What does this fold into?
Amino acid sequence: MSSLPTLVRILQRPRRALAARRIAAPAATTPAFADGAGGGTPFEAAVRIVRDAVRDGSLPAATVAIRQGDAEPLIETMARPGGDRTARDSIWFLASVTKPVTSAAVMLLVEAGRVDLDRPLVEDLPEFAGAERSAITPRLLLSHTAGIDDSATGVLTRARPSTGQLLDLACRVPLRFRPGTRFEYSSVSFFLLGELIARRSEMSYPTFVRDRVLAPLGMDETTFDPRSLGRKRLMPVHGAALDSWWKRRIALGYLAGLQHPGGGLWGTVDDLLRLGGAFLDSWHGRPGALLRSDSIREMTRLQTAEAPAIKDGVERQANYGLGWWKPGYAREVPASRAAFEHGGATGTRLFVDPARDLVVVFLSNEWRQPADLACWPFLRGVYEALGPAR
It folds into this structure.
């Protein structure tokens, strides 16, 4: 589905500070299973699901966080004895949790009148011209309904494709289907969005994301290149064919240079709580929020009702907005229809439910970890602890 497996296998003007709610500074270390932050809270049973998965070896390590309303967040880190060193300030490869960040950057430009979600992309990227491409818009790219072929990145894996090569590929590869008629997840299409951001903002994509999204939220430890934050804090990704330190070093350098708009960010649990809180503030129209309320509501509105996914020849509802999955339309978690979330192939997930004023973060470090192993059961446990919606 995502282009990230192929990439990982190769190796591995500032806005004023926003009034997003801040999270307390993390402790230097949090010993594995120390006291269990979930112990003695309504969420103990939910957190225990993840603890057990780490203890029995199903997960290498994990950090979970739950925040509802203005209450202090519950945060717990977990690691097996003798396994990965895990702390509250550990830095995790967020993978596709990058997509909501890139999507927010697009929406900031929409608010500024610099981007129109329904304007043909070719009007801003002339090199994108050809065949049915004139029908492709930022909206279709953000909702994975443009038909951009994600699997084609495999032809460049041995060459360690650059950002420019992947952008060129996205501009040339034949479309998988007529734009707007189907849903097919595509990470490579986010290189087109990154280039759109750069051209319409007159800033590089990484600079715009840093200055207009991350820095205003105080997300100082979310970055495409985490090496300057201390290598010992970086959580290794297991199961990604990076079984030696030199492969991991090469991979990290490659990904840091690629700055993948659909999956290149690293970050901490506290920074993801800040991000989730910012989106929640935007939804509720609170003063100083990152985006206007109408912007986040458009992002998190179901956009794929007329564009089904096709799996094993069977049509299925895709349940996707603009850079966000819509869990309230699926069966995994009893979320409200207003809820939105995104996961990453490394076992990461940011989950927001405005109807419950809820932000949940789940971080792990196993490549292609099935969400139903621990993440979905954990989230179901959170909702069980919350009880019926009022």
